[in-house]
Amino acid sequence: MTTTDFDELDGMKQQLRELQEKLKGRDIVNDRMIRNAFSSNIGRLMRRETLQLVMLLVMLIVYPPFFRTGGCSLGLTIYAEALFVVCALSLVWSMSQLEKIRRSMGDNIVDTNTRLLRLKRGEQRWLHYCAPVFITIFLGWFCHDIYYLKAFSFGELDMHGKYTLMGSMIVGALIGGIIGYFRFYRPKIDALNEALSQLEDLKENENI
Amino acid sequence: MKELELQFTKMVKEQKATISTVCLMFSDDPDEVDELVQLTLINLWKGFADFNGKSSMRTWVWRVTMNTCISAERKNKRLRESTTSLERIGVDTTAEATNDKQIVALHNRIHRLGLFDRAIVLLWLEDMSYEEIGDIVGISAKNVGVKLARIREQLKKMRI
Questions:
Q1: At B108, is the secondary structure helix, strand, or coil?
Q2: How many Cβ atoms sit within 10 Å of the Cβ of residue B21?
Q3: pLDDT band at residue B134 using 50, 70 and 90 as cut-offs
């Protein structure tokens, strides 16, 4: 490194000290924020997940009688309940992991961020692969039940209506899937992978 | 509990320059800076009771603040050189005044670095040793040296 580089970096140190001097006289960290920290048990992410969990629990209780009185088969009702239970369990697991990470924010940057990024990546994969598969099966089964119910009620099987709805559902799912994959899933996964590769890069010289 | 709250408040007031500096360097939007500060305080409070004193309080605060900022700030606005968060603390971002001009330059250059490079250079500018930086980041002191050499190259290119 040349003397010029040293001068420049020393200059940056001086600039940082000046910035810190300015910050000492300012109110960026204020008493209200400190008080909020005492009362806040959960962050925004935790609040969102808690809300989702409450909604799932409500659905878990409300849907079985609603499905059964609506004429859906016992199999579909059990499947829907199992789906809600799996979603609720995955949410609880994700929340517990998030809470663990938040409590270990004082650990080193590489480990904490690797854990957090892996958790977020896992969540994205669950949301974009497993959830749509479960929901598509559910909707297919639902259509099947509704049309057979109608057939029993009116004494004829409306196969044309059934296949029209199923076809529309498949086309809609495909369009939604493609948009979701390229518009939301891929950019998020790419950003998470890039951040993970930065962490790998940080550690790459460890064994040299 | 009240005693712990008092200790925490005292600690935050002692370390507020560190918390503010890191949050400012990780965002150029005043509202986002507030959000980062609030998230940092929540994380500091959550870990405060369990702080075991293995490292110094200063080192621990740096770790929590940087972990919070890195995990929250993934929107990648590196290429946008905005300095609105500096204006709020009284830095004249348009003036020819040399001190303020240099602070703006420092902010823009650090802000254009990757998230983890930003963390390393901030710790280095804080006059921490390679060992201390390595301990906070989670890499060896030797690796810190390698990373800093690369960061210097990046900073030089920004000057051109």
A1: helix
A2: 19
A3: very high
Select from A12, A38, A112 the Cβ nearest to the Cβ of B45.
Answer: A38
Taking the C-alpha atoms of residue A145 and residue A149, their distance in angstroms, rounded to an integer, is 6
Nearest-angstrom CA–CA distance, A143 and A162: 7
Interface test with A, best of B11, B106, B123, B135 (most A CBs within 10 A): B106
Residue A21 pLDDT greater than 90, yes or no: no
Share of residues in chain A with pLDDT > 90 (%): 5
Asked if the Cβ–Cβ distance from B70 to A113 is below 8 Å, we say yes
Q: Across the interface, which of B37, B67, B135 has its CB nearest the CB of A105? A: B67
If contacts are CB pairs under 8 Å, which of residues 63-102 in chain A contact chain B? 102
Q: Is the pLDDT of residue B76 over 60?
A: no
Nearest to B58 by CA among B22, B25, B4, B111: B22
* ipTM of predicted complex: 0.78
Interface test with B, best of A45, A109, A200 (most B CBs within 10 A): A109
A176 closest CA partner among A132, A144, A143: A132
- Closest of B85, B34, B65 to residue A28, by C-alpha: B34
**Tokens encoding B64:** 């929590």
The segment with the largest mean pLDDT, out of A122-126, B60-64, B68-72, is B60-64
Report the C-alpha dihedral over residues A116, A117, A118, A121, rounded to 10 degrees. Answer: 130
Task: For residue A50, count other CB atoms closer than 10 A to its CB.
Answer: 13
Interface contact A28-B37, CB threshold 8 A: yes
Provide, as residue numbers in chain A, all residues whose Cβ is less than 8 Å from the Cβ of B12. Answer: 29, 34
Distance CA B115, CA B121 (A): 10
